[in-house]
Structure formats: C-alpha cells, structure tokens
Amino acid sequence: MAADEAIVVVGKEETRSKSMDAELRTAIPTGGLQARQALLPYNSLRPRLDMETLPVIHLEDENILASIFRRRLYFYHATGENASKMLSTPMRDDSIRGPALQEAHKKAAHYLSTKFLVEIIGLEKFPVRHPQNKSIDGYRLLNERETLIVPLMRGGQPMASGVNEVFPTAQLLHAKLPGDVKKENLKGIVTVILVDSVINSGKSIVEFLQRIREVNDAIRVIVVAGVVQDQAVRGGSLIRAVARSMEITIVALRVSKNKYTGKGTTDTGNRLFNTTQLD
Questions:
Q1: Distance separating alpha carbons of residues 86 and 29, to the nearest angstrom
Q2: To 10 degrees, the CA torsion angle through 116, 111, 125, 189?
Q3: Which Pfam families does the entry link to (predicted)?
C-alpha cells in the first residue's frame, strides 16, 4: 500500500544527504510524489529546496498530528454481485420466516466469512491428518481461538452462528446491551467480530464499538451485517464521525438506500423468530 503523502524529515545541513535534493527535484514534479518537510529542530534550520516545492510543516501542530494518525472507515460489501443477489433473495422474501430465514442468514454469513473475513484477518497454518496417513498443512482463521464473535441480540444471532460454523474454534458471546461485554470476556482476545442483521443508523454498533474500546483499545473489531443502510456510512453519519477517533471495519452482504426501518411484521428480528405480532 502506497503512502498518501510523504513527510521528509530534515535535520542539520551537515548531516543531510547530498543526493537527496536532486532526487526530490525529480520525484516531486515528474514522479508524482506529494511531500512536505518537517524540520528538526523546527526553529533553527534552513528548509530543504524551497517551501513551494517542499512545504514546511510543524509536527507538533494538532491538525498535522490528526491527519497523520487519523483513523478511518473500511467498508467491504458485495452489493451487485451475483452471489449477493442470490443470497439476499430469501432474506428479502416476506414469505420466508422463522427457521428458513435463519438458515438464509447463516448462508449469507458463510459467504461473508470466506469472501471477506479471511482476507481481512488472514489465515494460519495447522497440521491435519491426510487420508493417505500423512500430515499436511490445514488452514484456519488467524488467531481463531482468540477470536470472539458477538451477535447483537436477537437479530444478529443467526448470522453469528453462520460465522461460528466457518470459524468453529472461535468463542461466542450473546449480547443485548454493550455492558454485556465484560472485561473478562475480552481477556486474551485478539479479534472481536460484532454481528447484526441490519445496520440502520449505526447507533447500536457504535455503542458496542465504544464499549469494547473502553475495555481494551488494542483489540481488532470487525462488524458483520446482512444489510447496511446507505445513510449509516455516508459522510456526516454517526459511524463516519466515530471513525475519526477509531478504526472501523464493516463487512456487509449489501448496501440499501431504502431508509425504512422495519417494525412489527417487517422487523427482521420478528421475521427471524416468528414474533411478527410484536410491535
């Protein structure tokens, strides 16, 4: 991955590389290099080249620090892909409810796990016994045993089960509220996979993300969802705002521009568990 912009750290003149100026004069106008220079110490050095070609920045400037260390939103989805169209059909079919709909959510989770999660998180080798009576390399999710799958209850439970089927040695914790994720649940955990069927505004997901970061800021957190409302990940959304202070990774089967939030007979949780009589 290439850097968005280079920062040339400039020290005392007697210690500077004599060939660097020529390299920079070539790389900036003709090689597409975008760079600025940081003088160390800041107030006592002459800048390299000229300040139009290589602008000077102050590394203690809060805006500069924020731009260097800014977090961001990583959003992966399969909207428009043929597999997504097929898998989402039973999930959107109003005639399919209860166990059949739960199974559809599991299948979607299987797909997202093998298409996205294994690529984002990575794999590790482990020995397996081949039918020819020899040991060969098998593969599983990186740090699978130190991975915690957290379904947001109750809508996230079927998809979380699907993720767990793909990563069978991962831990599973049902959670209805962010406070259900305790410090002891995160002990020794490397990766948390938060699972929900639908992300509407993103409020619930953000609350869970903040809870996990509050307990352990070093844990990697990935969100898995069946559908994400477009407005939840647009500029100005709550998720985008929080992504300025923490890294957020979301994996979804599809993105929807339908702003309707289900309730009663159209609520995903009610359809999953045959409780559509509830408001």
A1: 49
A2: 70
A3: UPRTase
Using the CB atoms, write b or e for 195-228: b if 16+ within 10 Å. Answer: bbbbbbebebbbbbbebbbebeeeebbbbbbbbb
188 conformational bin, left if phi > 0, alpha if psi -120 to 50, beta if neither: left
Residues 228-247, mean pLDDT to the nearest whole number: 89
Q: Tens of pLDDT along 70-121?
A: 568 899 999 999 999 999 999 999 999 999 999 999 999 999 999 999 999 9
Q: Which residues contact 169 (CB under 8 A, 6 or more apart)?
A: 140, 144, 145
Q: Rounded distance, CA 172 to CA 180, Å?
A: 13
Closest residue by Cα to residue 221 from 117, 123, 128, 105: 117
> How many Å apart are CA 228 and CA 226, to the nearest integer?
7
Contact 109, 91 (CB under 8 A): no
- Dihedral in degrees, nearest 10, Cα atoms 82, 86, 91, 92: 80
Tokens of 100: 């059949």
pTM beyond cutoff 0.85: no
